[in-house]
Amino acid sequence: MISFGKYKDILKDSTMMAILVIVVGLSSAQAAEFTQCNQSFYGGIYPEFTNNKLSAKTQPLCMDGFAVMYSGVSRTPLWSAEHLTRKRLQQAKDIDREDSFHEESRVPKSARASLSDYSGSGYDRGHLAPNADMATRSQQYDSFSLANIAPQSPRNNRYIWRNIESATRYLTQQYGEVYTVTGVAFTNKKTKQLAGRVLVPSHFFKAVYIPATDQAGVYYAPNDESERIEIISVDELTAKTGIDVLPALDIQTKTQALELPLKAGESTDIPSDASNDEPTWLLFVWAILEWLVAQLQA
């Protein structure tokens, strides 16, 4: 006959095993889903949760041109990952913007954000993977899925975030390719909600890795009207958010924060002998063109 104490130990071990099976099962399912879009991740390895609470009700989504980890708890993406190249951005310049915000049909209705959630909320529908990065109409349409959208402070979205998206494209033109992971964080003790359903992030972030120089940095900004922004390391982002956005990077690259530019054309601390196939005057023209496009879309 099994004693009560022994029974508790067995029950405890069984519970832990069940949890482990669930976690492993979720990881395997996510890995299987992301094999269809692993070109979006540096080294083909998608971001990992270091805080397992974030994995609750998550759904991996391969979009056309990027990948998303969607949360049915927040009804927002937790992150969107992209691989940017000069060729992709050249193609993206030829596509004019067509707004087509829409619900994501692959997400169950109970976990899905709706257009009405954002109506009259005072928040912008903020892209994680930006429309201006999209090289085809199909990619552009997917970027307007609400699975790639989170509530964003208007001034943050229209000024700070527009500038750093432009700066990221500038770095891509300068160094040939960039891997980026854009996401949200919920660090406030009390989280705001839209329509009692969609959680409002406390912060937005954009991690940028440049393979040509093996350097990475992260833009990290509060989701408010303050226009504040920090440049932090990948390791610092992991500590703040519970997400390792670039697990394939070595320890040194993760701990050192590349001083990213806040606007297109600004210098960084990238070594002067780093690869640069484009003449300086062409990069300057690119920055001017991006500014003109931004003014026309404003």
UniProtKB/TrEMBL annotation:
SUPFAM superfamilies: His-Me finger endonucleases. Residues 95-118 are annotated as: Disordered. GO terms for molecular function: endonuclease activity. Residues 63-252 form the ENPP1-3/EXOG-like endonuclease/phosphodiesterase domain. It comes from the Bacteria. Residues 62-252 form the DNA/RNA non-specific endonuclease/pyrophosphatase/phosphodiesterase domain. Its EC number is 3.1.30.-. It is an enzyme of class 3 (hydrolase). Pfam families: Endonuclease_NS (PF01223). Transmembrane segments: none annotated. Residues 95-107 have a biased composition (Basic and acidic residues). InterPro entries: DNA/RNA_endonuclease_AS, DNA/RNA_non-sp_Endonuclease_sf, Endo_G_ENPP1-like_dom, ENPP1-3/EXOG-like_nuc-like, His-Me_finger_sf, Non-specific_endonuclease. Its cofactor is Mg(2+). Keywords: Endonuclease, Hydrolase, Magnesium, Metal-binding, Nuclease. Belongs to the DNA/RNA non-specific endonuclease family. This is Endonuclease. It comes from Psychrobacter saeujeotis.
